[in-house]
Fold this sequence. Notes:
Elements lengths: L7 E7 L8 H16 L7 E7 L10 H16 L6 H12 L5 H6 L2 E7 L2 E7 L6 E7 L5 H5 L8 H19 L6 H4 L6 H4 L6 H10 L4 E4 L6 E5 L3 H14 L4 E6 L13
Antiparallel strand pairs: 1-2, 3-4, 5-7, 5-8, 6-7
Helix pairs in contact: 1-2, 2-3, 9-10
Amino acid sequence: MALDLWAEVEVSAAEAPVPPQDPAERMAVESARRLYSHVGREPPAGLYARYRKSIPVARGLGASAVARASGLLAANALLGEPLDREELLGLGTELEGHADNMAPVLFGGLQVAVRDGESVSHVGLTVPAGLKAVLFVPDMAMPTEESRQVLPQQLSRQDAIYNIGRAALLVAALASSRLDLLDVATQDRLHQPARAKIFPAMQAIFQAARQAGALGAFLSGGGSTILALTCQGEEKIGRAMAEAAAREGVGGETMITAPSDAAAQIVGKG
Length: 270
């Protein structure tokens, strides 16, 4: 689900190579080079990126997908738009490894996306009006690759059924504005219990958000950000989450935003 959080990435070509220092900048450059290669063009020797951060990195908020999508969009623009967004989604998914973040970046809104062989199938939904997202962004990072290492290698049939049903219920609840179902629909047995081993304060923050009036609270992506959905009282929910985290010895910041139907865009070309 795309949120109203933005970063600006400038991709340029210099006369001499300029090694990017920031991991997000490296991702943008690598993605731009991949697009040049895909269309059979030699990338400029001095291709580089400058990433202006406003999306926390390694916090489960899709910063890597934003960086990679930016590189693809910029290179595509520099080459005269040879690829459409569906083709960019395929390339971005190849680079990112999964489509769940790349699809919202490129198309906005709530995207249900699955890989089908070499292609990506996706459907976009409009999120109910008035829905807000309250984020508690801990000081601690949870890089995706590291947090995946704690996930179980096998699942029971009961846990698989539990999550499949809730995934379907979540889409149906958002599509039909049945916001009263979000608490049940965002419950999980597959990854949050495992990731709680490296983020023990998680459940206490979930509980505080719900008690303060959140419609549902869950780990954003692989963490460490906790996201609570609400239509009212977002300031109260944010305070409750931060206070619960502080009681558990976890520092961080609270951000209030909302789902966004806007996709990544080119804002200038020179």
